[in-house]
Design brief:
Keywords: Host-virus interaction, Membrane, Transmembrane, Transmembrane helix. By secondary structure, the chain is mostly helical. Helices cover about 35% and strands about 0% of the residues. α16 runs parallel beside α18 (about 620-635). The longest helix has 20 residues, at about 460-480.
Length: about 700
């Protein structure tokens, strides 16, 4: 089968190509007309009515189709069948031949546009006219639209529609004019050829046929007719386009969006009872404002301004009656030791419970419900961040963790915080948490008393870790008296003694060099062992005294202070005294027996008061040691220090969110390195200072010594 278009004007009449037809009367070849979409009337002929495209008022209309060959008497449009040619517009209509040689007239299809009017007979012959391209039809004037055709018979209309549905699209054809609104059909006789000619060849209406470009169809014109905008200003043109070209859905979207905005401007008032949680900041003038379950003092027994900063003044005061347990010379609270039995282990730690002794110490030294609430929140934060194996982590799953991991040190510091408030593995509301933590920590202790093994702990952390774990273990034994813990605590103390350097202090390597920072932690381990009545050689303590003498700073460059009132990090003339090393050195002096009125101690405390707590420049490592020094010194020194400490530390505790109860280590030099857990533990130790240890110089009021 040939691939040429059946309606191609290139088919030549003298080569026998499709598009020509032999006459049965022996005449010369007769050209078949080109169909533009009208259905053929019979199998012998085509409708000799050229169609022209409709105006481009609706370019979306479907083009008329050429009828396809069928098995009926209609002539097929195929390469084997003759191709229809354009009729000669000059030739007038000829009389109808015999039925077998001339097609019968057929009414034009409802989809076909009106035909063009034929030209006079003096034009070129039809045979030569058929050879010209169809596109030349554009040069002819377009006839006016034909008159409205009369209603067709149902049979003729049905045949025309069926023929149009089976045709193939022809690209050279123009889209047909959309049919007008159909009117009710009625039975009419079959139109004659004269009627058809009258309908399809009007004499007055004509137009130019336009062949559309299929590849790039013109955009559809607006369905809304507007006035000519040639003389309108640009603003008016844009406004007209915005009004008439905006789709309906866009207009609806804008309207509904405007309605939503208007409704959002209205406030619907609803009245209901709100529950407000007040987070107050407490000042020195307000005094006690909250009550915590641990704090059981009556209001009249807990006047903050009544405390004098010393237990002696409180006991001698007649302003309020003392608790019965304090008046009883046999017992001090439910957890206190007998006064006549001074050898009972852990007397210094007995105030940590929730008995009367703790309440008296809070009253005497200015603790209040605010400080107790802060301690409770801190312990809750530690409990939430305990790991599954019972340990704690310096890195942790919390914000601002350390960049260095040391689970042994983190666990020891957390346990010290719980034990400072009286919680052990068998007593207190956090007993289960403490027990789980101790199961982990005791697994790290070997037979030699060493808590530190090669597990990624850096060399600088090793001595601090050993000292912190030993302090916690000695405290636990002193608080519980568990005989199984005694041997383990003693082995840990023995390992610490083996680490001591010849000059009397401790540093990063066993028996090599000393610095005051590491030595302070080891001395506290030995002091905790003494509280538990463990064996601590006096020689080791004397060596500590000797080392402290070497790190006591001397006045330089016109400075004036008494020797022994300020301290430096190491034995070196290049070292300068600092508040941190001074606080640690003075605490060591207090535990080593300096008198409460020693001028060196008093002058050193004045130096610390000149460097008070300021959260804008945090230094919790310094504050931790200075708080203990002031507490043991009592009197005005403690009142002046405590008024800032009990205000600033709780005030800067996290009050909400995941880190509620902790302290942010930002801006703290040591806190940034050690992380949030380190910062939280040391702040907790400070707020537990009222009862964590019995005051050194007023302890005889409890022990009778």
């Amino acid at each position: 089968m040939s691939g040429d278009d059946n309606t191609s004007p290139k088919n030549s009449p003298d080569t026998g190509n499709p598009g020509e037809e032999k006459s049965s009367g022996g005449q010369g070849p007769k050209k078949a007309p080109i169909s533009f979409g009208a259905a053929p009337a019979s199998a012998d002929a085509w409708n000799v009515v050229p169609t022209s495209p409709a105006p481009l008022s609706n370019p979306t209309a479907q083009p008329l189709k050429t009828p396809a060959a069928k098995k009926t008497n209609k002539a097929p449009l195929s390469p084997e069948a003759p191709s229809p040619q354009t009729p000669s517009p000059q030739a007038p209509p000829s009389p109808a031949p015999k039925p077998e040689a001339k097609p019968k007239p057929v009414a034009p299809s409802a989809e076909a546009p009106p035909a063009a009017k034929a030209k006079p007979a003096d034009s070129k012959p039809a045979a030569s006219q058929a050879k010209k391209p169809i596109a030349k039809a554009e040069q002819q004037p377009a006839p006016k639209p034909a008159a409205k055709p009369k209603p067709k018979s149902p049979a003729v209309e049905k045949e025309a529609v069926a023929a149009s549905a089976t045709t193939q699209p022809v690209h050279d054809q123009a889209p047909a004019k959309p049919p007008e609104k159909p009117k009710p059909k009625r039975e009419t006789p079959q139109p004659t050829q004269e009627t058809t000619s009258a309908q399809t060849h009007p004499k007055k209406r004509r137009w130019h046929p336009v062949i559309p470009v299929v590849e790039k169809p013109k955009p559809a014109p607006s369905l809304v007719e507007t006035e000519s905008t040639e003389d309108q200003p640009l603003v008016e043109k844009i406004r007209g386009l915005a009004i008439h070209e905006t789709p309906a859905w866009a207009v609806s979207l804008v309207i509904h969006f405007a309605i939503v905005i208007l409704l959002a401007l209205f406030t619907v008032a609803t009245y209901h009872q709100d529950v407000h949680t007040v987070e107050a900041t407490y000042s020195e003038q307000l005094g006690e404002q909250l009550e915590h379950e641990i704090l059981v003092l009556d209001t009249e027994e807990f006047e903050v301004d009544a405390n004098s900063g010393a237990l002696e003044t409180l006991i001698d005061s007649n302003e309020m009656p003392m608790p019965k347990s304090l008046m009883n010379v046999d017992l001090i609270g439910t957890e206190a030791a007998k006064l006549d039995n001074q050898d009972t282990p852990g007397v210094d730690l007995k105030a940590r419970g929730d008995g009367a002794t703790r309440r008296v110490l809070l009253k005497a030294y200015g603790g209040n419900a605010t400080t107790e609430q802060a301690v409770a929140d801190a312990l809750d934060w530690l409990k939430r961040n305990q790991m599954k194996d019972g340990s704690w982590s310096l890195k942790g799953n919390y914000a601002d963790g350390s960049s260095i991991e040391n689970k042994v040190s983190a666990t020891a510091m957390a346990l010290l915080a719980f034990q400072g408030a009286g919680h052990t593995d068998r007593a207190g509301t956090h007993a289960a948490t403490v027990e789980k933590g101790w199961k982990y920590l005791l697994r790290q202790l070997d037979a030699d008393g060493n808590f530190v093994h090669s597990g990624g702990i850096i060399n600088q952390h090793r001595p601090y870790t050993q000292a912190q774990a030993t302090i916690a273990l000695c405290e636990l034994y002193a608080m519980t008296g568990d005989p199984e813990l005694k041997a383990k605590a003693q082995s840990a103390i023995n390992y610490c003694l083996e680490w001591q350097a010849p000059e009397g202090g401790w540093r990063y390597t066993e028996r090599v060099e000393s610095d005051l920072s590491v030595s302070g932690w080891f001395l506290m381990a030995l002091q905790s062992a003494r509280m538990g009545k463990l064996d601590v050689p006096e020689e080791a303590l004397v060596n500590v005294d000797r080392f402290l003498e070497t790190v006591a700073s001397e006045p330089k460059d016109g400075q004036k202070f008494e020797l022994g009132s300020r301290y430096q990090y190491r034995v070196s003339r290049a070292e300068k005294p600092t508040p941190t090393m001074t606080a640690e050195g003075l605490l060591c002096r207090q535990y080593r027996g300096w008198n409460q009125e020693d001028p060196r101690l008093v002058e050193g405390m004045d130096y610390l008061l000149d460097n008070p707590i300021q959260w804008e420049e945090p230094d919790v490592y310094y504050w931790y040691y200075a708080t203990q020094v002031a507490h043991h010194l009592e009197g005005d020194a403690w009142r002046n220090w405590n008024k800032d400490m009990r205000q600033i530390i709780p005030e800067n505790q996290e009050k909400r969110g995941r880190e509620k109860g902790s302290w942010d280590p930002a801006r703290d030099e040591n806190g940034v390195k050690a992380g949030r857990l380190f910062m939280t533990c040391l702040c907790t130790y400070m707020l537990e200072v009222y009862y964590r240890h019995l005051p050194i110089y007023s302890k005889h009021y409890f022990t009778g010594g």
